[in-house]
Amino acid sequence: MPDPSTYRPASGTIPEQPGVYRFRDPTGRVIYVGKAKSLRQRLNSYFADVWTLHPRTQQMVTTAGSVDWVTVGTEVEALQLEYAWIKEYDPRFNVRYRDDKSYPYLAVTLDEEYPRLQVMRGAKRKGVRYFGPYAHAWAIRETLDLLLRVFPARTCKAGVFQRAHRMGRPCLLGDIGKCSAPCVGRVSADEHRQIVLDFCDFMAGKTDLLMKRLEREMQQASSELNFELAARLRDDLMALRRAMEKQAVVFGDGTDADVVAFADDPLEAAVQVFHVRGGRVRGQRGWVVEKTEDLGPGDLVHHFCSQVYGEEAAANGAASGIPRELLVPELPADVDALADWLSGLRGSRVTIRVPQRGDKKTLQETVAHNAEQALARHKLRRAGDLTTRSRALEELADALALDSAPLRIECYDVSQIQGTDVVASMVVFEDGLARKSEYRRFAITGQSDDVSAISEVLRRRFSRYRQEVAESVAAADPGDLPGIDPETGRPRRFAYPPQLVVVDGGQPQVNAAARVMADLGVTDVAVCGLAKRLEEVWIPDEEFPLILPRTSEGLYLLQRVRDEAHRFAITYHRQKRSKRMVASDLDGVPGLGEVRRKALLRHFGSLKRLKVATVDEIVEVPGIGRRTAEAILAAVGTPAIGDPARTNGRPASGQSGTVLPTAGMTDADRAPEAT
């Protein structure tokens, strides 16, 4: 580990002018870029006592092997150079504003001859104008669907556009009036571009002029008795109003601003920004960043502005994403230089200020609340991924007196209704996470209670385990991996034993499971049960249950495993029960598949009519032979009478016979379409 004192420059050699500095590791790679109003004052702060520095700063200065700098004339030049170096070197210790997810934008491809409106994610490109970001892609499509009747611009892909152009026929959107169909020449390229530009003006907040123009055209059409045009313009106005209602009005003065707020701890910070255009919230974004040093809100504002708006300007070629006003929780030390730099990017004055009262202060508090929630969610995800799962497994190992943490847990549950359609489930959790590819389900026959069903399921599972292990040992080459099928390369279905078996139930179920495993000679797998009544943990041959604290992460993990097993079992039970309830008497007829069953029901209309049909009448159905017809009548409970004199189940003259009763019809008989 390099010692900072080994590469510390002499204090007198560091200039006092503003500039930008770079820390490099021993291989020469840039690991940190910063700017300072006074290079000497800033760099000397890095070479104080290492133990007084911020943890991330300690790591940075002990990782670095050298430092260099460049002086500039003004702080604005320092900002420009700092942004350029961060973009060029991508230093590992710099605060980087990367979106916590890929936000969708409404993009307008103004660089094409016929601009297209579309949903776009990922990196921005030049020549495309973006609106948003939006929280969900469906919100963009919903807004587009409302606005296309007013601004019928192209939304199709290049391939669809070219195919329609070759065929000379527009797509469905062109036929229903939601596209001006430039592909077939209904409008020229200039006319289509004007439609797109009007759409951009509306999305940018210039709504009043457009609404007044449409109202004026509607009144004029009405006065000229052109009521069809007036009705269409009226519907356009209603569509625009509905689109505007979907965006919350926060300022009545048409404010164009970004509202930024932070929530941080010593190591991380969550950033939220609301984009307000024309007094309406047009989009929202959020980041969670690592703090490389002891950064206050003002420092975070500096990094946010220099990186995010620098990226906007670099991506679009113009600073369409930079607002006139930036509302922040605290002003950075270089606020004047920052405002000048942003003004240069935008091409007009940008103001940075802290709201003090009124609606802007209220919105700032709302954005800050969102930042606090984002940081809490981020911490929760990290805890769930690492610390919490480890603590849960350790608590289970301690509570159940296991030699090590149960890295693989299997849970079993039984589902039934009064002994019918008995099924069981096996779910697997590895390292505290569900392993759904390892889930199994069992159909139980001959058992009508939970205890015997649990016994059968565990006997089947661990018998298969012993069999798989024996086959693997007998057939394996020395280089084969244990538990892996050498032919397919996939894990054998039951070759991996768990460290812990959990059953959904109390003392009877747990003791039954332990007996089965003891009979099979499986002695290295722990067993416990979780009873729903009071969430007691039962251990085999124990008179009283184990009570874990309600705040125990181990108990919470057992509950998740048990609930997942219950969900998986009851889903399978419902499938079996539904399948049985729609079963038909025709299902078991040999040689009668689904296609022929449907043909029979189409021909006769119902199972009731089929029951009173003759063999000759059934043979008339395409694909049904005489032998199959006789089997059908036998299955539905009617003797196979081949006398042609018998029609529709009624005896002919002089012939005795009985019409079969229909009182015993099932739901499947009354609703043959369900079969």
UniProtKB/TrEMBL annotation:
SMART domains for this protein: GIYc, HhH1
Protein family (similarity comment): Belongs to the UvrC family.
Gene3D superfamilies assigned to the protein according to its UniProt record, in alphabetical order: 5' to 3' exonuclease, C-terminal subdomain, GIY-YIG endonuclease, UVR domain, UvrC, RNAse H endonuclease domain
Subcellular location: Cytoplasm
Function as written in the Swiss-Prot or TrEMBL entry: The UvrABC repair system catalyzes the recognition and processing of DNA lesions. UvrC both incises the 5' and 3' sides of the lesion. The N-terminal half is responsible for the 3' incision and the C-terminal half is responsible for the 5' incision.
Metal-binding as UniProt keyword: no
KW Coiled coil (keyword) present: yes
Subunit note: Interacts with UvrB in an incision complex.
Keywords per UniProt: Coiled coil, Cytoplasm, DNA damage, DNA excision, DNA repair, Excision nuclease, SOS response
Domain UVR: 208-243
HAMAP family the UniProt entry points to: UvrC (MF_00203)
Location of region: Disordered: 640-675
Name used for this protein in its record: UvrABC system protein C
Major subcellular site: cytoplasm
Coiled-coil regions, chain positions: 204-231
Domain GIY-YIG: 16-95
Ranges where the UvrC family homology region profile domain occurs: 259-517
InterPro entries associated with the record: GIY-YIG_endonuc, GIY-YIG_endonuc_sf, GIY-YIG_UvrC_Cho, Hlx-hairpin-Hlx_DNA-bd_motif, RuvA_2-like, UVR_dom, UVR_dom_sf, UvrABC_protein_C
